[in-house]
Design a protein that fits this description.
The structure holds two protein chains of two kinds.
Chain A lengths: L14 H6 L3 E5 L2 E6 L4 H10 L1 E5 L4 E6 L3 H5 L14 E8 L5 E9 L3 E6 L4 H12 L4 E4 L3 E7 L3 H8 L14 E6 L2 E6 L8 E7 H12 L4 E3 L2 H10 L41 H9 L6 E8 L10 E3 L5 E11 L4 E9 L8 E6 L2 E8 L11
Parallel strand pairs in A: 3-13
Antiparallel strand pairs in A: 1-2, 3-9, 4-7, 4-8, 5-6, 6-7, 9-12, 10-11, 11-12, 14-17, 14-19, 15-16, 15-18, 16-17, 18-19
Helix pairs in contact in A: 2-7, 5-6
Chain B lengths: L1 E4 L4 E6 L2 E6 L1 H7 L2 E5 L6 E2 L4 E7 L3 E5 L4 E6 L1 H5 L2 H5 L8 E5 L2 H5 L4 H8 L1
Antiparallel strand pairs in B: 1-2, 2-3, 3-9, 4-6, 5-8, 6-7, 8-9
Chain lengths: 379, 121
Amino acid sequence: MSEPTSEILSKTPLFDLHVSLGARMVPFAGYEMPVQYPLGVMKEHLHTRAHAGLFDVSHMGQVELHGADAAAALETLVPVDVIGLPAGRQRYALFTNDAGGIMDDLMIYNTGEYLHLVVNAGCKAQDFAHLQAKIGHRCEVKVRDDLALLALQGPGAEAALVHVIRPSSFVLPASFMGGARLNLAGTECLVTRSGYTGEDGFEISVPAAQCEALAKALLAAPNVQPIGLGARDSLRLEAGLCLYGHDLDTTITPVEASLNWAMQKVRRTGGERAGGFPGAATILSQLDNPASVKRKRVGLKPEGRAPIREGVELVDANGAKIGVVTSGGFGPSVNGPVIMAYVDAAQSAVGTTMNALLRGTPTPVSVVAMPFAPHRYKR
Amino acid sequence: MSTRYTDDHEYIKLDGDIGTVGITSFAQDKLGDLVFVEQPKIGRTLKAKEDASIIESVKAAAEVKSPVDGEVIEVNQAVVDDPSLVNTDPEGAGWFFKIKVANASQVAALHDAAAYQKLIG
């Protein structure tokens, strides 16, 4: 059932642990990654929402920007307020291209000394080259392929994290998108209170050599299960979060992607540092004239129980094509199918009904507000 | 009652000229957790290898094909109501449909248990 691969796949520092835990390994973004463990996708998903799940996301790219000019330099590549990001805080961002399309989405954390960026595995080589070429003369671009990344997610994540913290006194990141350095299982790690599931939780940047020991210590905490990419996908879809290469790509602008919230006022028309990022003319024009936007990313719910997957066409009552599904599957917590799609802007209001052509059969779906499963971030 | 297996991992359990069709434990394990089942209409005439039931797991869509020619005489509503039955008891309560076998020699031509075991290694 898996496709033959001719490329040589990389392994994360947890490869042996995944195999010993009985994971089913699949190729993903050039890495051999666990798609599921013996628990299975459904139970792994529900376990994460009920307790805590540990995800190996070491395939993602980590890069640091050092130097006094780093934040201003990075602002030339993203439509995001980086200069105003306080020390100890993290922010979602997008690399845009000259046409206003999205080259990748990423997280930026301000350590107070430098900026720590996390980018998608499939885009990381290109992102690193982009940073070096465009702002390498203004700040030091330091690729940290010596670091691994773990995500600990779910309502039990804080208890599990505390379980492995060594010092008797410590300060956790107090709220969503906060961060701190913590000694976990004897190793100093960079911890941010963030993730990709809609739950409270943490992302832990740990030296690769200490990653396995930390993962084992976290798995030894009560009610922590290893979770594979299968459940990671259904969790992020229920949370209404975009997957690059599916819901976002170089032909889609942040406005079309309904990511206006990610672009702070200071970078918009009339803001103190308006524009100055690739594709600014297009993106600012779309923000200023919402009626000019042709398509929008929306959430859809079908009437029936059949999952409707990526690539399925959406048509209006007359059968005219008005959109396409970019992510779709079964939401275990929603207990039903959930869909992310791009539709004509005129058909994007909540409550609008249309048909998905499921195996050629028109199947009613309607536009709903996202997320499908409520976010439970620590505020 | 004898059980035979297809290359596509369906089984057919024969009782007289009535065959009970489902997917093997190997197949359910490969598919992962099932979340949706659509059954063929009772009375529909199927050819061997024709798509009969549509199934969706958390990972992918697939079809249960009819192992032989015949007519659908009964479908298992229990797996429509609770698709996870196919994962927990694929060769028992998780069957899909019963078919009136048109040609018994088609059943005999399928893999027996030993040959199927060899196929899946």
